[in-house]
Design brief:
The complex is a heterotetramer of chains A (about 550), B (about 525), C (about 300) and D (about 325).
Chain A: E1 8-21, E2 24-37, E3 41-45, H1 52-58, E4 67-76, E5 79-80, H2 86-92, E6 97-100, H3 104-107, H4 114-124, H5 130-143, H6 149-152, H7 162-174, E7 180-184, H8 192-208, E8 212-217, H9 220-226, E9 229-234, E10 237-243, H10 244-249, H11 254-261, E11 281-290, E12 293-303, E13 308-312, H12 319-327, E14 334-339, E15 342-343, H13 353-358, E16 359-362, H14 366-369, H15 376-388, H16 392-405, H17 410-413, H18 423-436, E17 441-445, H19 453-470, E18 473-478, H20 481-487, E19 490-495, E20 498-504, H21 505-508, H22 515-523, H23 531-549
Parallel strand pairs in A: 3-8, 3-9, 6-7, 7-8, 13-18, 13-19, 16-17, 17-18
Antiparallel strand pairs in A: 1-2, 1-4, 4-5, 9-10, 11-12, 11-14, 14-15, 19-20
Chain B: H1 3-7, H2 13-20, E1 44-49, H3 66-75, E2 80-82, E3 88-90, E4 93-98, E5 104-109, H4 123-131, H5 143-146, E6 149-154, E7 159-164, H6 171-174, E8 185-186, E9 189-190, E10 201-207, E11 211-216, E12 230-235, H7 239-247, E13 253-255, H8 262-267, E14 271-276, E15 281-286, H9 296-304, H10 308-314, E16 320-322, H11 346-355, E17 361-367, H12 375-386, E18 391-397, H13 403-406, E19 413-418, H14 424-431, H15 446-456, H16 461-478, E20 481-487, E21 489-494, E22 497-498, H17 508-511, H18 514-517, E23 519-520
Parallel strand pairs in B: 1-12, 1-13, 17-18
Antiparallel strand pairs in B: 2-3, 4-5, 5-7, 6-7, 8-9, 10-11, 11-12, 13-21, 14-21, 15-19, 15-20, 16-20, 22-23
Helix pairs in contact in B: 9-11, 15-16
Chain D: H1 2-32, H2 37-42, H3 48-58, H4 64-76, H5 90-125, H6 130-144, H7 147-159, H8 176-182, H9 184-209, H10 213-220, H11 225-254, H12 257-263, H13 268-278, H14 281-308, H15 311-314
Helix pairs in contact in D: 1-14, 5-6, 5-9, 5-11, 6-9, 7-9, 7-12, 9-11, 10-11, 11-14, 12-13, 13-14
Chain lengths: ~550, ~525, ~300, ~325
């Protein structure tokens, strides 16, 4: 597997990059070396803020607005990208170094068809004529295993699903047959089942064209499948770099080991509730939807006191809609929500303040869930003031108490704005705001999916602890099975608005499964570098077997 | 040249008097250069005026702006015409005579006048044209002046007889009013929408509020008139645009000229300013029925608190003369030369205030530029000067829109513009007689009223003069109107335009007749 | 040659403006402690220039009686006197001191424009955000009413209203404010629409917050950037509206000096190449440019583009 | 596409309702105006008797709601009546003026729209350079001068030197080329008045998108800056630009009374102002409805174009 005998394609020496903040220029990358050989795939891993993307983009001689390279050299195939003119750099970009962005949906121009965006590179760089490029596109679409490769290019981005877009973007990056592609978290925004297809397609095409790649991700299991070597970054500095298998089996640094250990948290099993216990919340035969479309079909499940119910499913499965029905934002067409056995009014506007107080919600995107113009004092204090009538000193004391509860130092944080917090801190504030109401039931909507794993783990531990201390029941909406494993007591698996399987966690992770649950479970990447190869082989075999059976 | 016309009527003393009436005066300094060469035919006169509205029409009952007045004076004939020297001459009427009590008037209609349509002008046309303004259904602005006519009949094919309710020595003057155009009649009625007329110019096209094009009427009966081949009249409301049009040579004559910049305009090459002073005056009329204006001492105080010369200098830029609180101009026949000129005297103003038992007085003065150009500024200057006499004048700028219906004669004290009337009687009757529709000071003075009626039919020149002198004195000392200034009509024209040495001053643009009387040099 | 001289003076003016703006920013950055100082340090020169101009205008407006040598209505000399030591900028058509009128004009014009715009924003943004927050029929009704009002040309509409209600300063302010508020409504509503779909609004609704809290505490603070930007533009347009109304004979009551009417009063002079009318017009233009420079900077900061 | 037709139909329906509401508002407003046609025509010469006679003749003595109903009944049948002031059919009165107004509006738009788009795009391309700031400052200065003042300056500079006429007098005999020449100054004045707004919006709409991931993507594909602005940013910025263009076009049609007055241009604005001051209600109504209709239609057009410019709306999933 060693690539070191191949010629060097990219060599970055002692790169320093600064970013502009209100306090002036601050270093983002503090002297990183990077060497990449032809045809080699390097995994860049680290938490958010580690400088992965900045470094990846620097490999193209590109810095985002508000960033600048302050030192070091970037030598691509003998050309120094730092010293080169913008024109030279531009002629390399797209032609010899290509980029695949995290969100294909946002990175495709919504105003143009896929094919127009595909041919733009080859035509502008005078690599091929438009006709040649269009023919070539179909070929690459086919290789990327896109459905209807002849036609798909003539669609607009919004007409194509996320996973397909991500593959189309990889095809687009390949259009000039570059020597190097920078993949910037290409599968992060995708569902697990889709992720597998994209990963496989990327891996194959990179191998076929012997393209070198820098693969940026925060997901170790993913990078394990893709990279030949892995470099770990922390706050703009290199922690360590090694060959993938070595890195996985015996990381040298403490930080790396902590990354590896993230997935270890498992909440202790709790006794099952008594059969006659009244659930805190019952979802009874709920059918609901928007406009004329039904999104939920006859959904039933209970959430018992002090238990965490994880509602699992891919995007579009109806998880979040269920939450909206429970909170009263979306009155159901049929069925009802019981709280302590008593039916709740379907519309939140008809619920009493007390009923509203009992059910609180924590949102996935803390950025949009916290009013960016309010300080923590007001953000957290408001529910306490509203529901509990706290004022003045008492209110301040309560806010401080809540801040301590979510492990933020009150003196330091009480007067901050959300924009002055990190992602994990924001999510904690979201939790504190929910807790300020002193609720009995909290809906957590993908609360960890936007966070780094270490941070996410901290949040999960916090939630777990609070459940015990404050006698809370959780409904945990997630697509991440690792999270389920870590925190859930009971699991509800949803697909297309229906509950396909539900029961205690231990039962769920033990076969036999519903086929959909099986698919979900098997799609979760594992740390084993051979996992993807093996899984694909197994699925191929399964398909062949199914064909043979038929 | 007009001798023959009047040969017949001059035997009658009254009429003689009438022909000698000098209603207005004359050319002022800046005009002299224009009257050089002999008149000659040719050219299209392009005339820009500051009025004219899209709502203008051919209907003589509604002619209210200078644009329609000039247009229709060019298009139509009238019974009588005021000559440049202020005397009255016949137009459609060849001659006229009255009974000694001046109650019955016989007008002999000139033969050989044809309308643009080719129809001959007859006595019936005259009767229908005047009748249009009379009667209960009349909506004409001229109704008040023809109301005293009791009956109109013919006496033979070319004589029209007017019978008045009371004697009026100035009746022929009234027949020169711009509303009283002689229009073709059909079944005893004129068609107010028709463009036909018997004047020197035929209307080719008229887009109200924008332009009118006229061409010379080839069968016009006046031999030495209507020199231009055609007229192009444009409404340019914006003063600056009007000046620009003249400076850039896009028009030949503009009227009026913005007085603020007249000095600058004069310096422009090839441009001449013409101004005429006559009967046009600006007033501040107060409602004498209301306090504090019901006290003549307050009125006098206000009259002493205005600096007339400053207004003439700053508002008229010198194009005018100071007024003496009565509406008769210095060029008029019975102007009271003996009445001392009132001047700015804050002490006297204070004295009169004291007499009224007041230390100071606060009043509102309504003004808008619709009242007269610069009215608001004039009011401001007034207010500044009056402060020294303990008179606090708050100037209220009213909207131009609707000024005459909503402010004038509605607000207790407002700025007013008067084009003036060619005779003393007409002026006083219109705006100072008790109960007159436009008596804007709501003034009722028994002695004045008595004199007015007496003077109207008084035939003795000296007695008449004495009466009018007294009336001016009464108005000046007891009237409810401050008359600070007589304003000249100020026009500007290119060097190419020539006009007779004497230019009429009864109205602007040579008594609305510039298009007929002027020519290209 | 004349063109060259003009260009030269323009260049001089621009350079002086830039230098002043830069200097002002330095002063602010050093004088203000902590965050605020840093904010100004990174501000572009154009914003510094804008803030400096606005500050000067405010000072002039506040200190008008102390600065102006004469009163705004006092007739102090002949008409159109040339510039000299007594009458720095000469006199106007009635012999009033031009410089004093310009100084008082700052007070009147800026004051009236500010009150008008503030009123327009109060009305427009409250209703607009209300429409966005409540939605449903209220939104429909308000939006349709605003559509109707906006379809009537503003100048003609204000002409009608001012003729009906008279032309005191109060009616003038109210009429312009009401007509302007329709434009503000539209903006506020569309900005509000983008905010009400955010999770924190949903959270506030689920908390059972009342409408007032929702609008004032949750939506308004987040809608402020575009609203302030619009405020800057609208503020300047008020001068123009007043000026256009003066053209039609409405507008501010004399002898109150306001730049819009002053432009109108002296405008004819430009026909003869006299630059007097440029003075009030220049005052308006300078303030407009200054306000918009600052607004651009604020928008830029709010947009998060770091360039 | 059928969505667009439904939208057009709905908006047209709303437009008709808007026009109806406007006709009521204008009617009420003109009713509330002090004075009436008779008084304003007779002016200083009005007396009670003549005013009454005038009113009888025009039917103004009838109650307001009767007059409105009569007007509405006529208007629904396409008959807008005759001018009260000079008894001319309103259709005749308005016809040429509407054509003139449209001519000037289209002329000005033909200069202003491309100009402001080009300037706006260039300002976005060279953002934060001196070109950007300079263009911005000049444009802002241009809009902060009152319209009539801009017109005077242009006349002083361009008309007094004899390059262009200071009056834009055109009539049915004027040839097209001549009309273009004669109305150049008013068109230029209007251009200066509206360009700044459109230019700033174009610039802002484009710059607003420059932080989008797809713009970064285009940069990383090595696309030249001009292509990024034109091909990648502009198509996505069209909706706000079109909206602001529509607003400005509406302004060019409905808001140019001052420019008409200065250049003696026979357009609808002057007619409207004259008719308001003379209380010629049927004319005011007709012109107001034309203005409102122009506004409604332009907004509708803007929405349709904005929809067409957005593939999400015309190519459903």
């Amino acid at each position: 597997m060693s690539e070191t005998d191949k010629p060097v394609l990219l060599r970055m020496r002692d790169i320093h990059i600064d970013g502009r903040t209100e306090e002036g220029w601050q270093p983002i990358i503090k002297g990183v070396d990077l060497t990449l050989h032809k045809g080699e795939v390097l995994g860049l891993i680290g938490e958010s803020g580690a400088g992965k993307s900045t470094l990846g983009l620097a490999a193209m001689g590109y810095t985002r607005d508000g960033c600048r390279i302050t030192g070091g050299s970037i030598e691509f195939d003998g050309i120094d990208l730092v010293k080169a003119t913008e024109r030279t750099r531009r002629s390399l970009r797209g032609r010899r170094i290509a980029y695949v962005a995290q969100s294909a949906a946002a990175s495709f121009n919504p105003a143009h068809r896929l094919i127009d965006q595909y041919v733009e590179g080859p035509v502008v760089h005078r690599v091929m004529s438009r006709q040649e490029a269009e023919r070539d596109a179909v070929e690459l679409y086919r290789r990327m295993r896109l459905p209807n490769p002849e036609e798909i290019g003539f669609r607009y981005p919004h007409q194509v699903s996320g996973g397909q877009l991500q593959r189309a973007m990889t095809a687009m990056a390949m259009s000039c047959r570059p020597d190097l592609i920078v993949f910037d978290e290409p599968t992060t925004a995708l569902d697990v089942t889709t992720q597998i297809e994209v990963l496989a397609a990327i891996r194959d095409i990179v191998a076929q064209f012997d393209t070198a790649a820098i693969y940026i991700t925060h997901d170790l299991a993913v990078v394990a499948q893709m990279a030949d070597r892995i470099k770990v970054l922390l706050r703009g500095e290199e922690v360590e770099e090694a060959d993938t298998r070595t890195m996985l089996s015996s990381p040298r640094e403490e930080y790396t080991r902590s990354l590896w250990a993230v997935r270890s948290h498992v909440s202790p099993a709790k006794p099952r509730p008594a059969p006659d216990a009244v659930p805190v919340v019952s979802v009874r035969a709920v059918t609901a939807g928007y406009g004329r479309m039904d999104v939920l079909h006859n959904v039933n499940f209970d959430i018992h006191r002090r238990r965490t119910v994880a509602v699992v499913g891919e995007s579009g499965s109806g998880k979040s809609t269920t939450a909206r029905v429970i909170t009263g934002l979306l009155p159901p067409r049929q069925g009802q929500i019981l709280f302590d056995g008593q039916p709740l009014p379907p519309d939140y506007r008809q619920r009493t303040r007390e009923q509203l107080r009992q059910i609180q919600m924590i949102y996935q995107m803390a950025d949009t869930a916290l009013n960016p113009k309010l300080r923590l004092r007001d953000l957290i204090g408001r529910p306490a003031r509203m529901y509990l009538g706290l004022k003045g000193k008492a209110l301040e004391e309560r806010v401080r108490e809540l801040l301590r509860l979510i492990e933020l130092e009150p003196n330091e944080f009480i007067d901050r704005l959300p924009s002055e917090l990190s992602g994990g801190q924001k999510q904690r504030v979201g939790i504190a705001r929910a807790l300020a109401a002193e609720p009995r039931f909290v809906i957590c909507d993908e609360v960890t999916s936007a966070l780094d794993q270490l941070v996410a783990e901290g949040i999960l531990k916090l939630l777990d602890r609070l459940q015990g201390e404050l006698d809370l029941s959780y409904m945990f909406i997630t697509h991440d099975l690792a999270t389920v494993r870590a925190i859930a007591d009971d699991v509800v698996v949803m697909q297309n608005g229906r509950v396909v399987e539900q029961g205690p966690k231990d039962d769920m992770f033990r076969p036999p499964h519903d086929p959909y649950t099986e698919l979900l479970l098997s799609s979760v990447p594992e740390m084993d570098p051979d996992w993807l190869t093996r899984l694909l082989a197994e699925r191929e075999k399964g398909k062949a077997g199914a064909a043979a059976d038929a | 040249m007009t001798d023959t016309k009047f040969g017949q009527v001059s035997r009658r003393g009254l009429i003689k008097g009438a022909t000698a009436m000098t209603a207005a005066g004359l050319i002022l300094p800046f005009g002299a250069g224009g009257a050089l060469a002999e008149p000659k035919r040719g050219g299209i006169l392009r005339l820009a005026q500051g009025s004219g509205s899209t709502t203008d029409s051919y209907d003589p009952a509604t002619w209210d702006s200078q644009f329609v007045q000039v247009l229709n004076t060019a298009r139509c004939g009238f019974l009588t015409e005021i000559a440049p020297d202020g005397s009255l001459v016949g137009e459609v009427a060849e001659s006229w005579e009255a009974t000694p009590d001046a109650k019955v008037w016989r007008f002999k209609i000139r033969k050989g006048i044809t309308f643009h349509s080719g129809k001959d002008l007859t006595a019936e046309d005259v009767i229908a044209s005047i009748n249009y303004h009379r009667g209960p259904d009349s909506k004409s602005a001229a109704k008040p002046i023809v109301d005293p006519i009791v009956e109109i009949t013919t006496d033979g094919p070319d004589v029209v007889v007017f019978t008045l309710e009371a004697g009026n020595a100035d009746f022929p003057f009234i027949m020169s009013d711009y509303h009283l155009a002689i229009l073709p009649a059909n079944d005893g009625k004129i068609d107010p929408t028709s463009s036909d007329g018997c004047g020197g110019y035929v209307v080719e096209s008229w887009e109200p509020g924008v332009t009118a094009r006229l061409r010379r009427y080839e069968n016009y009966w006046k031999p030495n008139r209507a020199w231009f081949d055609g007229i192009e009249m444009t409404a340019i409301h914006d003063a600056a645009a009007r000046q620009n049009a003249l400076i850039t040579g896009e028009v030949d004559v503009i009227d009026p000229v913005d007085l603020n910049t007249v000095a600058l305009l004069q310096r422009a090459p090839g441009i001449r300013i013409l101004s005429t002073t006559g009967t046009q005056h600006y007033t501040f009329a107060m409602d004498t029925r209301q306090a504090p204006f019901n006290d003549n001492n307050v009125r006098l105080a206000l009259k002493y608190a205005i600096d007339r010369q400053e207004l003439v200098d700053k508002i008229l830029n010198g194009y005018g003369s100071v007024g003496n609180d009565h509406p008769i101009g210095p060029s008029q026949r019975y102007f009271n030369k003996d009445l001392p000129q009132r001047t700015y005297d804050p002490d006297k103003a204070k004295y009169h205030l004291k007499q009224a038992g007041l230390d100071s007085v606060s009043v509102q003065l309504s003004a808008a530029d619709a009242a007269f150009p610069g009215a608001v500024d004039a009011a401001l200057l007034y207010s500044e000067k009056a402060a020294a006499a303990g008179i606090n004048i708050e100037v209220v700028r009213e909207p131009n829109d609707g000024y005459w219906s909503n402010v004038w004669m509605k607000k207790p004290w407002s700025a007013v513009y008067w084009g003036g009337r060619p005779t003393e009687d007409w002026m006083f009757t219109t705006a100072y007689a008790a109960g007159a529709a436009w008596n804007d000071s709501f003034w009722d003075h028994p002695r004045f009223n008595e004199l007015l009626v007496a003077a109207r039919s008084e035939l003795d020149e000296d007695k008449r003069r004495a009466m009018y002198y007294e009336m001016q004195e009464i108005v000046s000392n007891e009237g409810g109107v401050v008359v600070p200034m007589f304003a000249s009509y100020v026009m500007a024209m290119s060097d190419r335009v020539a006009h007779p040495e004497q230019v009429a001053a009864n109205w602007t643009l040579d008594g609305f007749r510039a298009v007929e009387r002027w020519w290209f040099a | 040659m004349e063109v060259l001289t003009t260009l030269f003076w323009i260049a001089v003016a621009v350079s002086v403006g830039m230098a002043a703006g830069w200097l002002f920013l330095r002063v602010l950055a050093t004088a203000l402690p902590g965050r605020a100082g840093r904010v100004f340090r990174s501000a572009p020169i154009s914003a510094g220039f804008g803030m400096l101009v606005i500050l000067i205008y405010l000072l002039v407006a506040i200190l008008a009686p102390a600065i102006a040598p004469f009163s705004e209505r006092e007739v102090v000399g002949g008409q159109f006197l040339p510039w000299d030591a007594t009458h720095l900028l000469g006199t106007d058509n009635l012999g009033r001191d031009m410089f004093s009128r310009l100084v008082y004009g700052a007070r009147n014009t800026v004051g009236i424009a500010f009150v008008t715009t503030a009123l327009a924003f109060l009305l427009g943004s409250v209703l607009g955000l209300l429409a966005a927050a409540v939605g449903g029929w209220l939104d429909q009704v308000l939006s349709r009413v605003v559509d109707v009002l906006m379809a009537i040309p503003a100048l003609v509409f204000s002409l009608l209203l001012l003729t009906i209600f008279g032309t005191s300063v109060v009616t003038l302010i109210l009429v312009i404010a009401v007509i302007d508020s329709t434009r503000v409504f539209r903006l506020a509503r569309s900005v509000g629409m983008n905010i009400v779909v955010m999770d924190f609004i949903e959270a506030a609704r689920l908390r059972g917050e009342g409408l007032f809290h929702l609008i004032v505490r949750e939506i308004l603070p987040n809608a402020s950037a575009p609203l302030i930007a619009e405020f800057g533009l609208r503020f300047c347009f008020v001068f123009l509206t007043i000026s256009a109304l003066s053209f039609l004979g409405l507008g501010i009551q004399p002898p109150t000096a306001d730049w819009g009417s002053m432009v109108k009063e002296n405008a004819v002079l430009i026909t003869f190449g006299d630059i007097t009318p440029l003075l009030p017009a220049g005052c308006i233009a300078l303030l407009t440019v200054a306000v918009n420079f600052v607004v651009d900077w604020m928008l830029h900061r709010a947009s998060g583009l770091k360039e | 596409m059928s969505k667009i037709w439904i939208m057009i139909a709905k908006r047209l329906g709303l437009g008709v309702l808007t026009l109806f509401a406007i006709s009521i508002i204008i009617f009420l407003a003109t009713e509330l105006l002090p004075g009436d046609l008779a008084r304003s025509i007779l002016g200083q010469s009005a007396t009670e008797e003549t005013v009454a006679a005038f009113q009888r003749e025009l039917g103004l003595d009838q109650p307001a709601h009767v007059r409105y109903a009569q007007w509405l009944w006529g208007a629904v049948q396409g008959d807008f009546g005759t001018s009260l002031a000079n008894r001319r059919p309103i259709a005749d009165l308005i016809g040429t003026r509407l054509a003139n107004t449209m001519f000037l509006a289209i002329y000005a738009a033909a200069i202003a729209v491309p100009l402001s788009l080009i300037l706006g795009i260039m300002a976005a391309l060279f953002r934060n350079t001196w070109f950007d700031r300079g263009a911005n400052a000049v444009a802002l200065s241009a809009i902060s001068f009152p319209e009539f003042f801009v017109a005077y300056i242009l006349i002083f500079v361009l008309a007094q030197s004899g390059l262009f006429p200071s009056m834009a007098r055109i009539d049915s005999t004027t040839t097209f080329a001549d009309a273009l020449y004669k109305t150049f100054l008013p068109a230029l004045t209007l251009t200066l008045v509206v360009t700044a707004h459109m230019m700033r919006m174009t610039r802002a709409a484009i710059i607003n998108l420059l932080a989008s991931p797809y713009i970064e993507m285009a940069q990383l594909k090595g696309m030249p800056p001009a292509r990024i602005i034109l091909v990648h940013a502009l198509p996505n910025a069209l909706a706000p630009i079109i909206t602001v263009i529509a607003l400005n076009l509406a302004y060019l049609i409905t808001g140019v009374v001052v420019v008409e007055a200065v250049f003696v241009y026979p357009g609808l604005g002057q007619l409207m102002v004259d008719s308001v001051s003379k209380r010629d209600i049927p004319v005011v109504q007709a012109v107001a409805l034309i203005f409102a209709a122009a506004y409604v239609l332009l907004n509708l057009l803007a929405d349709v174009l904005a929809t067409l410019s957005n593939p999400r709306l015309i190519h459903p999933k």
